[in-house]
Write a structure and sequence with these properties.
With 272 residues, this protein is an alpha+beta fold. The chain has ten helices and eleven strands. The strands form two sheets. Strands 1, 2, 3, 4, 5, 6, 7, 8 and 10 form a nine-stranded antiparallel sheet that branches. The protein has a two-stranded antiparallel ribbon with strand order 9-11.
């Protein structure tokens, strides 16, 4: 089913992005973000897969997605769905959480205990922060609303070791992922990747997909899209970004970018 709808994205001085969007039918393909996503469904049924489960978010429900977590989006019911969301930069979030003396911080990084939650008070706080960030006003008021969101998030957070060093993942999958992160701008062959991991390409593909839910090539595409998004956010030209990260041309980047984020690279760059 094709998608119809709209996206309203804004970036703010704090580095936080606010997004409000409406989709009918297919919303976006599986992808991930570098940010922590905290949002709520306003209208309709927001259906998506995350953590290898299907989730159905209905009006008033909160959803949480960590950096690197694969997720998609679909509207299963007539009328589609509308949602509002904050994109929180990981470095900013960790710094701000450590300002709370009673926050359960550690040497690792924050993680969400669950993907969906029913917390009407936090949903109101997220909505208030969303509105405050988008309206002219004093910085003190905006920061006060964001502090309320952070305080409300504490019961929903845990702490875990950094993902790239997660010892729970199979060694082959970790080696392959680290190699892809280190060489994402290069034209990497499956045989090269398998040789680096010391296994054949079939065993590598099975281990990688079992660990991350994507084949190595699909993971590399998502990794390149994440890098492209960061470059576009600071004003780099789409054609330059496409060439840097191995896309055939700007149109090739644009097709993948729109499938993942619902916007063209040029449109995202303008909005940022």
């Amino acid at each position: 089913m094709s998608s119809t709808g709209w996206i309203d994205l804004q970036r703010h001085a704090s580095g936080i992005e606010t997004l409000r969007a409406h989709f009918e039918g297919h919303a976006y393909d599986p992808h991930w973000h570098d940010s922590y996503l905290v949002g709520f469904t306003e209208q309709g049924v927001q259906q998506f897969h995350c953590r290898r489960r299907r989730h159905d978010s209905t009006p008033g429900r909160l959803f949480f997605v960590e950096p690197g977590e694969l997720h998609d989006g679909h509207a299963p019911a007539a009328g589609g769905f509308t949602y509002a969301m904050l994109y929180l930069d990981p470095a900013w979030l960790q710094h701000e959480l450590r300002q709370f003396g009673d926050a359960p911080v550690s040497s690792g990084e924050p993680g969400f205990r669950r993907t969906l939650a029913d917390d009407p008070e936090l949903a109101r706080q997220v909505a208030a922060a969303f509105s405050a960030l988008r309206m002219p006003g004093w910085q003190l008021a905006k920061e006060t609303h964001l502090d309320a969101v952070l305080r409300g998030m504490l019961p929903h957070l845990g702490w875990h070791e950094r993902a790239l060093g997660d010892p729970r993942l199979p060694r082959t999958a970790r080696l392959a992922r680290d190699y892809l992160h280190a060489h994402c701008e290069q034209d990497i062959g499956l045989e090269t990747l398998a040789a680096h991991c010391g296994v054949d390409r079939f065993r590598l593909s099975r281990a990688f997909k079992a660990a991350f839910g994507l084949a190595p090539h699909a993971y590399l595409v998502q990794l390149r899209l994440a890098h492209a998004r960061r470059c576009l956010a600071v004003g780099d030209a789409p054609a330059e970004v496409a060439a840097r990260f191995g896309f055939a041309d700007q149109s090739h980047l644009g097709r993948w970018f729109r499938r993942a984020y619902g916007l063209t690279p040029a449109d995202y760059r303008r909005r940022r």
